[in-house]
Amino acid sequence: MTVSRGRTAVCVTALATTRAVYQALRTRAPGTSARWRRSNYAGRTVDLYAGPATALGAAAGAVLAGSSSAARTAPAAALVVLAAGACGAYDDAAGADDPRRGFRAHLGALRRGQVTGGAVKLLGIGAASLGAAALLKERPVDRLPAAVVVAGAAHCVNLLDVRPGRAGLGVLALAAPGLLRRGPAGAFAAVPVGAAAAVVLDDLGERTMLGDAGAHALGAALGVAAVVGNGRAGLAVHALGVIAATAYGDRTSRSATGPATASRSHPHSPA
Fold it and tell me: Where is this region: Disordered (predicted)?
């Protein structure tokens, strides 16, 4: 019973925090209204409030989920979620008009001395995932695959965010089975479930979008849940899965043309 209440408390915390931040931003967001408005795949104007809301909600849920685990678990989970959200938010603001797609394009620009939003996400989320993995896993051999899972999950969820509600529903579908698990695995699975559930109806209704900030934060939370809930063999399977999905998505993003296949937050690039 205690474990069940823990999952419920984590889910409610993530949901309530996400919803509170979302409503606060709708009431009074910092900066100009143009900063928070984007045109989605259908040309309708939506807001980006769901992005920072889900990042903060997932971080709050991660703190509670890790409160009964090792002392370093909660800060590791919360910080990687916030870092993923911050890197995504940077790309939402600075990379909206960047036509470059895929890792190769962004790394090529970096070699020429151009720091793109995609490069910031690739390096920033990668570094944050390595740091989190070092805190979440005691054995060095487990840390690299753990980092791959967290960073890869963040990127994969972002690749789903090309239609209203698709990323949120994908996160709910992938995380929900983890709620059946006991201990920290179940508690951490409740983090992305609560945060995604808080805004998925508004996303489906084309009132808001997760953007890169929300998609990457939810993906990082999903990755943390997988890392916490799996040993070495499970980590290897998850790492191979996200690598395959990332490679496929990167190839698809580079070959995609037109708004129908482009990211909703970046009409020209889901990278």
Answer: 252-271
Cβ contact 254:100 at 8 Å: no
What does the pLDDT read at residue 4?
42
Under a CB-based contact definition with an 8 Å cutoff, are residues 135 and 75 in contact?
A: yes
- pLDDT, residue 2, reads 41
Q: Which residues, 6 or more positions from 220, have their beta carbon under 8 angstroms from its beta carbon?
A: 58, 80, 81, 83, 84, 85, 125, 128, 129, 150, 151, 153, 154
Q: Please, are residues 58 and 14 in contact by the beta-carbon 8 Å criterion?
A: yes
Verdict on whether the full-model pTM lies above 0.70: yes
Residue type, 42: A
Q: For tokens 């960073």, what's the residue?
A: 151
- Burial of residue 29 (number of CB atoms within 10 Å: 0-12, 13-18, 19+): middle
Structure tokens at 3: 């474990």
End-to-end C-alpha distance for the chain, whole angstroms: 42
For the chain, residues with pLDDT lower than 50 are 1-4, 257-269
Report the alpha-carbon distance of residue 242 to residue 130 in Å, rounded: 16
Q: Of 228, 222, 55, 220, which is closest to residue 126 (Cα–Cα)? A: 220
Torsion of CA 204, 85, 220, 243, to 10 degrees: 90
- CA distances in angstroms from 187 to 6, 58, 157, 221, 222, listed in the order given: 6, 12, 20, 11, 12
Nearest CA to 38 out of 92, 76, 77 is that of: 92
Residue that the structure tokens 């910092």 belong to: 30
> Residues 51, 92: contact at Cβ < 8 Å?
yes
User: What integer pLDDT is reported at residue 271 of this predicted model?
Assistant: 57
Model pLDDT, residue 193: 98
**H helical segments located in 45-139:** 50-65, 73-94, 102-111, 117-136
pLDDT in the model for residue 74? 94
